[in-house]
Amino acid sequence: MTQPRRWKSELGEFLQARRAAVSPREVGLPDAGRRRVPGLRREEVATLVGVSTDYYVRLEQGRGGRPSEQLLEAIARTLLLDPAQRAHLYDLARHRSQRDRRILQERMPDATRDFLGTLVVPALVMTRTMQVIGWNGLASAVFTDYGALPEQERNSARLLFLDDEIAARHRDWESSARGTVGILRKTAGEDPEDPRLSALVGELAVRSETFRRLWAEHHVFEKSTGLNLMRHPEVGDIDLTYVAWTTPAAPRQMLVTYMPRDARSAEALQLLGSMTAPYPAGEQGDHPGEQGDHRGSSRHGGSAQPASEHDDDVRRHHLGQGGGRGDPRLPP
Q1: CA-CA distance, 80 to 225, in Å (whole number)?
Q2: Which of 41, 86, 273, 275 has the highest local Cβ count within 10 Å?
Q3: What's the number of CA atoms in the CB half-sphere (13 Å) around residue 35?
């Protein structure tokens, strides 16, 4: 059966991008001076891998058939692929031509929903396409009020690239954006025919020049653990260590918990919690207005209650530490 043209371009573009990122010196080759293009030449990769230059050229053009596992391993070593990039290479190479194209609405398992409601730190449940299908109240307070958004807009990648207010909350936006694109790239390798992913990537490529640039880099990323540097309009800077959890019951979903990295971040979360009305764990299928009265709460502030004078005093006490560093509305 003929391999789909899209798969051909994905595999070839990935190999070309990774080849361009490796210098001759990194793989023990002499640096022969100036080159017309960055990275390794095709013939150098072919020699290091142990195949003919003609075959490697055909492989990058999508005409090399399905490469063996030994060849993939040799390519991964030569191109210095990290574990996520290696897995992505294997996903592209063992492409299955017959895939289920049905659009299934992803739902959280009941146990995940119940567990989400018990957590005392911000937590989200996301699909591999970064669609947010579950959240707790503190996550809504920190990131955005997901319950107030239409279902199709509850996507972390979409919000990060297309919502200026959400983007402003990320102090290291470029790093967050690159990681997000890397996750989508990896998902595209796992299931290149997913119509939801194709629609999302198409929209972001049309509407965001930065997304187009990062997508062209073919960077892949496996969300596991890391650091989110946030800036909340009410409580200032919050440093959150995240951990992504998966279970055999829902392998294409991840529960992401966000824990405060330091005492100041813990105080900021505690303050947010005191300003946030009881807010049940939400999930995909809930529509704006279904989770209680949102009057008096901003779209991006969770279910915050109107601030009292006491709340203002507490906020000034917390944000005054460190020379008024937290609230961006205050002069430095």
Answers
A1: 22
A2: 275
A3: 13
